[in-house]
Design brief:
Elements: H1 28-40, H2 45-61, E1 69-72, H3 77-88, E2 93-98, H4 105-118, E3 121-125, H5 129-142, H6 149-165, E4 170-172, H7 177-180, H8 194-204, H9 218-228, E5 232-234, H10 244-255, H11 268-282, H12 287-296, H13 302-309, H14 316-330, H15 334-342, H16 355-371
Parallel strand pairs: 1-2, 1-4, 2-3, 4-5
Helix pairs in contact: 3-10, 5-8, 11-14
Length: 373
């Protein structure tokens, strides 16, 4: 296959069968992102007016409750800055942090600093380390790309549990256009698919105590909480000027937030997944989508992105230390991990998935075909 890299961003056809290029050598990812930019990203007076209205309405509606909203606080830049923005509007927040034992040490400190400085009530959930480790090992043995699905699903389950317990019907979400307008569509899967999770766990795990780990299903997320409980989700970072370096500086100044590395490196496990597992097993370098997003939002030039992609993914000594730490936590030997790394990768579609997720691609494909004519 001939190598192709986008002429505008740095997405390429390595490890991605979904990418397409036009006659000018520009990829579908950044073209789609630019079309969406004016629709979803409003770092201007329009965005300010929106947040003032939606947060003002929220505070009035929730005045007799303890909390206006809640958020999942990972300790990464996005959720941390979302907490800061909401704090500047005077929102009363409940934050949920899932400590799976795999955070970078600085992450634990950052989460506490944020909540102390901004007056946010914090709940820390510690999933059973044996069960969580066994489930994570199962995903690694399954050889699928997104081995962080258990991590994400447990967070979803805990968030909705505390929302129900505290009668909270509004979530703040740190996802954003500025740093995430381009997300590779290949080699990923819906983290809310409990059927998919249990199928992999039962096949590749060793534990049988499935009920004692908080997990969420697609039905619960999309139907029960989406339509019955009517959870409102707000993405505040799409309505402010969100520059990564300036956000780090603001957080450091206001609460002592410390740098933890590149995107998603607040978790040592996720760092290994993105800096070693995905590149080695699937030829997927997540930096390409992150830097391409920053190109689209004007925070990085294409030349700078190419230069940074030439830098080493992982310092060998740092990787060895990080891998020993993660494998020790989840209970997998280095011998077994290396064996998995030399085996062929598998698609998530090779394992059972929810009916909703099974038919959704078919529905979307039919709708696409109908709109083409």
């Amino acid at each position: 296959m001939e190598y192709k890299q986008c002429a505008r961003c740095v997405m390429d056809n390595i490890g991605d069968s979904t990418i397409k290029f036009d006659d000018n050598g520009v990829c579908n990812y950044c073209s789609d992102a630019l079309r969406a930019k004016n629709i979803v990203y409003h770092p201007n007076d329009t965005g300010k007016d929106y947040l003032e209205k939606v947060f003002g309405d929220l505070k009035r509606r929730r005045k007799d409750y303890k909390y206006d909203c809640m958020l999942g606080l990972s300790g990464g830049l996005d959720s941390s800055y979302a907490a800061y923005v909401a704090h500047t509007y005077g929102l009363r927040m409940l934050a949920v942090h899932v400590d799976d034992g795999l955070d970078a040490p600085v992450t634990t400190d950052n989460v506490k600093k944020i909540c102390d400085a901004y007056g946010i009530d914090l709940v820390i959930e510690n999933p059973d380390p044996i069960l969580f480790g066994d489930l994570t090992c199962a995903f690694i043995r399954a050889g699928v790309p997104n081995i962080a699905i258990p991590q994400d699903n447990v967070l979803f389950a805990c968030l909705y549990k505390y929302a129900k317990d505290n009668q909270i019907d509004c979530f703040l979400n740190g996802s954003n256009f500025a740093l995430e307008s381009i997300l590779q569509r290949g080699n990923t899967y819906d983290a809310s698919d409990k059927r998919h999770i249990l199928a992999i766990w039962k096949r590749f795990g060793q534990m049988k105590d499935y009920a004692n780990l908080p997990l969420m299903s697609v039905f619960e997320k999309r139907v029960f909480y989406g339509y019955i409980h009517k959870i409102l989700t707000i993405k505040p970072l799409n309505y402010v000027e969100y520059n990564a370096q300036e956000a780090f500086n603001t957080l450091h100044k206001t609460c002592g937030f410390e740098y933890y590395g590149d995107k998603h490196c607040e978790s040592i496990f996720t760092k290994i997944m993105q800096r070693y597992y995905l590149p080695k097993k699937f030829n997927v370098d997540k930096r390409k989508s992150h830097y391409s997003s920053m190109i689209i939002s004007g925070q990085m030039t294409r030349e700078d992105a190419i230069k940074r992609l030439g830098e080493q993914l992982y310092n060998p000594n740092e990787f060895s230390s990080d891998l020993d730490f993660v494998l020790g936590k989840i209970g997998m030997s280095k011998k077994e991990f290396n064996k998995v790394m030399h085996e062929e990768g598998h698609n998530h579609s090779e394992y059972p998935m929810s009916i909703i997720n099974s038919i959704l691609p078919i529905i979307l494909d039919i709708r696409k075909r109908l709109t083409e004519y």
